[in-house]
Amino acid sequence: MVSGQVFIADVQKRNVKPSDVVFVYATPANGDRMPLAIFKTTVAQLPLAFTLDDSSAMRPDRKISSAGEVLLKARVSKSGNAMPQSGDLTGTLGPVKVGAKGLKLEIRDQVP
After folding, report:
1. Quick check: helix, strand or coil at residue 12?
2. Helical H runs in the chain?
3. For 15, phi and psi rounded to 5 degrees?
4. Please, are residues 108 and 12 in contact by the beta-carbon 8 Å criterion?
5. How do beta strands 103-107 and 2-8 pair?
6. Per residue in 56-106, pLDDT tens?
7. Which phi and psi angles does 44 have, rounded to 5°?
8. How many CB atoms lie within 10 A of CB 75?
9. How far is CA 109 from the centre of its chain?
């Protein structure tokens, strides 16, 4: 389990709409890109407290509790598509130890 708050950097707030989809997810710190845990919300809900744990696993055989460290990622998807696209906004934090609390995940960068 990891938990904290996800928010959009002030410099990017003008580039989003309340209805834009936000994905918050954790990937293994070893470089594997397949998320261990994920949840979906909208920009209108931000800033938002989040918790990623085994109940938010994408697959039952890949759980966040089995990882020592993860990378936390957040992405604002203009299209609502799970795959990153040019113009999406992103934020990354980590690696962080599984069990970390009070994390601050800022969405600041733009996908080229």
Report:
1. helix
2. none
3. -95, 10
4. yes
5. parallel
6. 998 889 999 999 999 999 999 989 988 899 999 999 999 999 999 999 999
7. -60, -25
8. 21
9. 13
